[in-house]
Amino acid sequence: MRPQCLFPLFALVTSLPGVGPRLAPLYERLAGGKVVDLLWHLPSGVIDRRFSPKVAEAPDGKVATLVLRVDTHFPSDSPKRPYRVRLADETGFLHLVFFHGREDWLRRQLPEGETRVISGVVERFNTEIQITHPDHIVPLAQQDEVMTVEPVYPLTAGLTGRLITKSVKAALAKAPDLPEWQDSAWLARQHWPSWHQALEAVHAPADEFAAGQDTPARRRLAFDELLANQLALAMVRAQMRRLKGRSVCGDGRLRQEILAALPFSLTGAQTRSLGEIDADMAAPIRMLRLLQGDVGSGKTVVALLAMISAVEIGAQAAMMAPTEILARQHFATIAPLAEAAGLRLALLTGRDKGKPRERILAALAEGEVDILLGTHALFQEDVAFKNLALAVIDEQHRFGVHQRLELAAKGTAVDMLVMTATPIPRTLLLTAYGDMDVSRLDEKPPGRKPVDTRVVPLARLDEMAAAVGRAIAGGARVYWVCPLVEESETSDLAAAEQRHHHLTGLFGDRIGLIHGRMKPTAKDAVMEKFAAGELDVLVATTVIEVGVDVPAATVMVIEHAERFGLAQLHQLRGRVGRGDKDSRCLLLYGHPLGEVAKARLEIMRATEDGFAIAEEDLRLRGGGEVLGTRQSGVPEFRLADLTLHGELLAAARDDAALILGRDPDLQTPRGESLRVLLYLFECDAAVRTLRSG
Ligand code: ADP
Ligand code: MG
Questions:
Q1: pLDDT tens, 139-162?
Q2: Which residues span the domain enclosing 173?
Q3: Adjacent-strand bridge partners of 352
Q4: Residue 693 falls within a domain, yes or no?
Q5: 288 pocket-lining for ligand 1 (C-beta < 6 Å)
Q6: Measured by CB atoms within 10 angstroms of the end CB, which terminus of the chain is less buried, N or C?
Q7: Are residues 54 and 30 part of one domain?
Q8: Is residue 38 located within the same domain as residue 186?
Q9: For ligand 1, is residue 443 a contact (CB within 6 Å)?
Q10: DSSP bridge partners of 288
Q11: What would the pLDDT profile of 563-616 be if each residue is shown by its tens digit?
Q12: Rounded to two decimals, what is the model's pTM?
């Protein structure tokens, strides 16, 4: 249960003065719907209002705070003309300019003959001096409140800086003094303030520099967030380790038969990864391992050989794919090999219903199925294994800590192997999979030819289409990827349907279309036609991204490549270059293309190493923005920026290990405080793993 001291922070933003039901959705979109989200909404800069010149010496284009006497109002005589108010000091006069200004309100704010403190950007046109829509108009008594360094917050349409500043202040007022969860010696060494002081400091930066990211206060908050993340992962890991495990150690007999039936020998990376998996499975603890390997690096075979170990001891294995198409593809790949070794294989997807499904379930419960392949349907409530020893999860996106815990509860002592083709940079890997051991397939099977990648402006589309036409005439099979399904009025995104129509006009009817809104059976049908060579071109939205294997495809065209994440582009390109023919990838980009976007596409052209691409993407764009990582389970940090705070992550990881080594159930006074930290960063699931939670 969340501790009571945090209740005010987890109240809705509407609990703050001035935030009603009309504004709440705007806050929600900008920062989040809870008070605590406003604490994490950090200023991006400052406005210094301490400069207070006389009118005559107020410089053009600078923010200034002036003390002025209100002279005369000049209400607007047409909607196109602004409302003007003349004010003066002893050195001269200036005008305040209001577009669509309301007279009654302005006369109340600026009564003629009285003195007001005005703050805003001074503009000079020849002899005219003016301030358009001043930020502050207050009586002289409030001069000190205005002449400060004001934080500037990121905004969203409908919310003004003044509103946000006020609500953040109100949120800060609700922030309690929390017990210190950081080690005091470490805090002293880093010269870091307490949590509360740090919060106050980041929301009251003294200057532009202090609003930057690397102040002690900011680093402290970043470390808090990273420590919560690493501690939570370490606790999940500890929980997995506590659960009973079993030693799965096959005699290698079936594995030999499979290896003999394979038309190739394993790569060094495959052999090494399999060795790591074997060691985990043989140990009497639960395996929780991530197998990370580029598209085409051969993860499926490694998974199959691992599953064989389970079968060799008379137990069962299951492998889950994220889509129907992939589950079927795995089945098609594995079935002939399984047959060679006399294995009993079954496929279970959401499409299996009624009698056939019952038959599979019965066989599974009787132990008459050795390996079950399928989709999420594998882990439905009524699916019972006789003796499940290994669960493999392929290409798993959005697979959070919760699901890992749920899955582990499915069988007794089930080893778990998670496979991902998203190349995740090492630093991010730690934040998403810090609870897992990692094996990397960093070597491609031999004989792969490089994919010739070109970066081309969309303006040359006709030329590229003609080249594709020639390739088709030469027998090539082509993927053509578009970012959206239907052209919407508001966007100029290339539409798959329109492109399909266009290409059919050019090349005839051997053009297929596949997109996310189609029924699974319809998708499979199109995919199968493409694989069988009945279609030359497959126009697709990103549904083909995940894993589909058509070795005969040699051309990949991606429209508006600049709109995709690098990880995604890399995945898409991985669909070609799988056979023995030369392959090409055309990255078509729209204008205008910024410097970073240009650099990103250039990386794609220069290398096919997914890990290198991911590291570069992280460097160019920063941790929160690496596209394609959102689906891969990498958390988005609010306070930590891994391009800046990478070394803090390593420290947080070490600290988490140390903490759990000494106080596994977080029962010491520091442990109690750390529980508060975990709740503060919404790691509730992790706290529930504690025996005395
Ligand atoms: P991934 O799932 O990692 O994207 P796959 O397991 O689908 O890759 O393998 C891609 C292709 O490479 C498959 O056709 C597979 O048979 C082949 N393959 C796997 N390992 C090897 C190897 N060691 N040598 C040659 N080909 C291999
Ligand atoms: Mg695969």
A1: 999 999 899 898 999 888 888 888
A2: 1-46+157-243+671-693
A3: none
A4: yes
A5: no
A6: N
A7: no
A8: yes
A9: no
A10: 416
A11: 887 878 888 898 888 777 899 999 999 888 888 888 889 999 999 888 888 888
A12: 0.72
